[in-house]
């Protein structure tokens, strides 16, 4: 497996990966034998993309699953193919090999309908040399139509093959039992898990194709976790990894497929990839919008930013490939000006410049992420909030609506994540949008809430002296 450049000064603030508190079960095999279908079946949900096209899975996909009372971390891998290291297939194989290296159990899948192929024999021999526990699975045995091929699998030297149909669920119960029986002792796992940190921050890395999202994730993790290269669209699914910083705080990093204009998305597989990316964005707490600084800020970048704001997520703008920008002052000003005019609803959004490929200035990103996360979780005491509200109303009087002035009485914070406020008053629900923007901007400035969405809800109160 190829390695990335060593980190620069200040880049060693983060530990590589996380303590493996759960036993790791890796699903491996050549392309199109049904690994992702089996992964989804064991995970109990559609966690990985599945299609008839070989090579859909390119990066490792992870999910937690409960198998016969044992919690495990499942890893779906790209198909094992013999290729040169500098090719896409070679990089995919290196990623799969890295997953096998951390496995407590490898589920090696063959296609029973094809029988034992030379590729199966080659990689089974390779697996035997890795000194890992291996469970041999013959998939696609619908209706016991491929029993002879199952018997041929004994020749692989990996023990008795287990016949299943991942698509139809045949043999899955027995497979779960076999996996659970071959895992490390449960007491050791529970002891490690008891000392694990709390729930991780959920961080999604999004952007247009080829902006450097996967390179950024690899740089943060300190390993070649994601397949990268000059070919756009390498990442097809939303793939999660765990990072632990030097303070013991865990971050669940989710790399996503590149987002293009809807009109340009034609292939069914790309539609599924985009759907997975949008779902990852919605589940995130902080979103890093990665932009190719050489190309600048495009309309599609702004559309993604507006989607982040609409979903109420904290956001950091990451200008990647900064080392390749010729006129940095002009580029920074052009991007800042466009954000100021087009993203007024997230005024003050932090912008970090770095090179994910070389690691230059990458140490600035994580502090910015934790800062916007803290802002996103802000709660303001009701007393302070209403003192601000009174001052804001006196500085800029509430407007007239249909010849009558709005009577705004008080405000309270309904929730954080993002900060959400409710203003009460007579006919408050009729407040014009420009006055709402004034209040939100004043809130943001007074309580130091840069770059996070702010929600302002309006509730009218009934005049007790009005006629019924």
**What percent strand?**
15-25%
Number of domains: 3
**Uncertain stretches of 5 or more adjacent residues:** 1-20, 47-58, 190-197, 225-238, 263-270
Mean pLDDT level: 78
- CATH class descriptor of the largest domain: Alpha Beta
Adjacency order of strands in the biggest sheet? 1-9-10-8-11-12-13
What does this structure look like?
It is a single chain. The chain has 468 residues and is of the alpha/beta class. The protein folds into three domains: 174 residues, P-loop containing nucleotide triphosphate hydrolases (Rossmann fold, 3-Layer(aba) Sandwich); 176 residues, 3-Layer(aba) Sandwich (Rossmann fold), CATH 3.40.50.300; 79 residues, K homology (KH) domain (GMP Synthetase, Chain A, domain 3, 2-Layer Sandwich). The chain is built from 13 helices and 18 strands. Strands 1-9-10-8-11-12-13 form a seven-stranded mixed beta sheet, sandwiched between helices. The protein starts with 13 loop residues before the first strand and ends in an 8-residue tail after the last strand. 40% of the residues are buried.
Jot down its keywords.
468 residues; alpha/beta; Rossmann fold; GMP Synthetase, Chain A, domain 3; 3 domains; seven-stranded mixed beta sheet; six-stranded mixed beta sheet; 13 helices; elongated; disordered N terminus
What secondary-structure arrangement, pairings included, does this model have?
Layout (H helix, E strand, L loop, with lengths): L13 E2 L8 E5 L6 H9 L17 E7 L2 E7 L11 H14 L3 E7 L6 H11 L5 E6 L7 H6 L9 E2 L8 H10 L4 H9 L6 E7 L5 H9 L17 E7 L4 E6 L12 H16 L2 E7 L6 H12 L3 E7 L7 H15 L8 E3 L11 H12 L5 H14 L4 E2 L2 E2 L1 E9 L4 E7 L6 H14 L8 E6 L8
Parallel strand pairs: 2-4, 2-5, 5-6, 6-7, 8-10, 8-11, 11-12, 12-13, 17-18
Antiparallel strand pairs: 1-9, 3-4, 9-10, 14-15, 16-17
């Amino acid at each position: 497996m190829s390695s990335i450049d060593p980190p620069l000064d200040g880049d060693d603030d983060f530990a590589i990966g996380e303590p493996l508190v759960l036993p790791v079960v890796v699903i491996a095999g050549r392309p199109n034998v049904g690994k992702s279908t089996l992964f989804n079946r064991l995970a109990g949900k559609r966690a990985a993309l599945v299609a008839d096209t070989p090579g859909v899975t390119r990066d490792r996909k992870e999910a937690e699953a409960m198998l016969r009372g044992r919690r495990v971390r499942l890893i779906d891998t790209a198909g094992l193919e013999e290729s040169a290291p500098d090719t896409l297939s070679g990089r995919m194989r290196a990623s799969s090999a890295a997953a096998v290296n951390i496995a407590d159990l490898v589920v090696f899948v063959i296609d029973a309908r094809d029988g034992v192929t030379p590729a199966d024999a080659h990689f089974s021999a390779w697996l035997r040399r890795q000194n890992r526990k291996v469970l041999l699975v013959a998939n696609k045995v619908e209706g016991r139509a491929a029993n002879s091929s199952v018997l041929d699998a004994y020749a692989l030297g990996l023990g008795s093959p287990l016949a299943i149909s991942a698509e139809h669920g045949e043999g899955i119960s027995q497979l779960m039992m076999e996996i659970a029986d071959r895992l490390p002792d449960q007491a050791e796992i529970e002891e490690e898990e008891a000392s694990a940190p709390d729930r991780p921050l959920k961080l999604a890395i999004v952007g247009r194709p080829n902006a450097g999202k996967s390179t950024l994730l690899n740089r943060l993790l300190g390993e070649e976790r994601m397949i990268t290269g000059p070919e756009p669209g390498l990442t097809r699914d939303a793939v999660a990894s765990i990072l632990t910083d030097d303070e013991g705080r865990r971050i669940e990093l989710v790399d996503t497929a590149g987002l293009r204009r809807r009109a340009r998305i034609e292939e069914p597989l790309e539609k599924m990839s985009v759907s997975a990316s949008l779902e990852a964005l919605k589940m995130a707490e902080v979103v890093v919008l990665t932009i190719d600084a050489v190309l600048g800020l495009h309309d599609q970048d702004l559309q993604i930013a507006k989607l982040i704001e609409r979903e109420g997520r904290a956001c950091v703008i990451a200008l990647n490939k900064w080392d390749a920008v010729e006129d940095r002052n002009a580029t920074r000003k052009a991007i800042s000006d466009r954000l100021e005019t087009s993203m007024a609803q997230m005024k003050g959004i932090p912008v970090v410049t770095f090179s994910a490929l070389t690691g230059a200035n990458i140490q600035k990103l994580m502090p910015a992420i934790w800062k916007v996360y803290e802002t996103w979780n802000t709660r303001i005491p009701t007393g302070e909030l209403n003192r601000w509200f009174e001052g804001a109303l006196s500085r800029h009087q509430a407007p007239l609506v249909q010849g009558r002035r709005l009577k705004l009485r008080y405000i309270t914070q309904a929730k954080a994540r993002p900060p959400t406020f409710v203003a009460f008053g007579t006919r408050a629900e009729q407040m014009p949008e420009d006055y709402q923007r004034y209040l939100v901007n004043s809130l943001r400035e007074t309580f130091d809430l840069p770059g996070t969405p702010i929600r302002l809800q309006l509730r009218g109160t009934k005049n007790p002296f009005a006629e019924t």
